[in-house]
Amino acid sequence: MCSTANYVLPLRRPCEVAATSGKLCGGVPMPTNFPGVRSHGAPQDTEMDVAWQELMAITELQEFEVPTENSYETTQYQTMEPMASVGEYGMAQPHSEPPAACELRTAEAYNGFYSEEVPTCHRLGTSTETMEQTNMSGVNQGHRRTNACLTQGLRGHMQWTVHGQNAHTRSGDDLESDSGLSLGSSPPLASPDNPVGGAPGYQSVDIGMAYSDGEPDSMTEHTRRSHLHYSADYQNHTHSYLHSGAHPAYFSAQPILSQPQPSTPTPRSMKHQGSAAALSDLYNDSAMSSRGSSHLNMYIKPQGSISTPPLSRDERRALALKIPFPMDKIINLPVDDFNELLTQYTLTDAQLALVRDIRRRGKNKVAAQNCRKRKLESIIHLERELNQLQAQREHLAQERLEFQRSLAFVKCRLTDLYTQVFSHLRDEDGQPYSTDEYSLQQTPDGKIYLVPHTMQKREPC
DNA sequence: GACAACTGTCATGGT
DNA sequence: CCACCATGACAGTTG
């Protein structure tokens, strides 16, 4: 018996369609682009020029062997040909052929400036300090961060130290175990067996030990003395200009003795304490610890106030090969300017190779620093994202629980209503329908039918 | 002395 | 092809 047509109930309601209200958990964008930190942009030319001028100034001083404050008068720097005037360790530029452009440029750079900071620093050092300094050379491993100004002063007096007592200090490279040689890309460089004498105007100076990391034991006393003489004096005169490149903050760092410049400390630099740390933070990202060398060129003031970063390996190599322009120019100049710079000097193959290696390494160093910063930022970002997603998951789980409770309640209510509706239905004889034989079903148009189980068909709601 | 963090360098691949 | 950049891997330094 089929009576469904007769029992259309007045109950009509639209079929509810669950609204798919979109994503529960939208895709979280992964960090794809972090702004590269290009903190190593080309420093101001003035800084480089200051560095250069400082170098030249000290060179002048050395020529007269009597460092005085007056030695820093600018008039000294207006007489040009810096490369040619450095006496026994003159740089690569031959005396006779400085390019006119270079002359002009350098002369301009020399005009009218020499910071008073330098003489101030020079005054810092006394012969007593220098003596103590020298004696501390073996102790300073416990004081790896030294002071810029102090070192400058000390380097100013290294001259005295070396000349006066043939100092027993050794270049850091002597002690360096890491060869530091550029693998493959550079031709053989200076060594006791292979002196790089190609640079015109050079006195024969044993620079091999300073660069080639040769065996110190093979050093004769003569070469050792020469080396000491060279390494002390030459470093004394050139350290500043070299550092002007490797550490763009170097010159701005000098005044920091009274006015520390803020910098973004790395986690490591944040561990530093005291004034030395504050100063060393200025160098936190670059060349602070040159691989295998950072403790070797250390100069400690007895009272241990301030420190300077040691020469990096490339700086020492540049010193050894007498590269006649600052590190920052080597590294940061655009290609065209860089190549133009190279054409202004007559460089040996070894010098050219070193300069290109320095440029490559310098750029790669900055790139590595940026890469690591990005990596750290990425990690921080991902951790933050992870925390957010975990919070979101907890929230969604809570929401799901509430929905499940709500659904159970609705189901229960629906069952009650179903039973209630069903109980009101009567057949032709006025008898209630058995729930075992019939069930209520709703059609898509909203009509509700009483369907016997025997002919039930599934109607999608 | 072991260890972790940091750093410079090299090799490699991509632009 | 060259210069440059990004990055993994390695090794040295440092605390």
From TrEMBL:
Source domain of life: Eukaryota
Pfam families hit by this protein: bZIP_Maf
Entries under InterPro entries matching the protein: bZIP (IPR004827), bZIP_Maf (IPR004826), bZIP_sf (IPR046347), NFE2-like (IPR047167), TF_DNA-bd_sf (IPR008917)
UniProt KW keywords: Activator, Coiled coil, DNA-binding, Nucleus, Transcription, Transcription regulation
Domain spans labelled BZIP: 354-417
Single Gene Ontology MF annotation: RNA polymerase II cis-regulatory region sequence-specific DNA binding
GO CC field: nucleus
Ranges of biased composition (kind: Low complexity): 178-193
Span list, region Disordered: 165-224, 255-276
SUPFAM superfamilies xref list: A DNA-binding domain in eukaryotic transcription factors, Leucine zipper domain
Protein name as catalogued: Nuclear factor, erythroid 2
Natural source organism: Haplochromis burtoni (Burton's mouthbrooder)
Taxonomic path: Eukaryota, Metazoa, Chordata, Craniata, Vertebrata
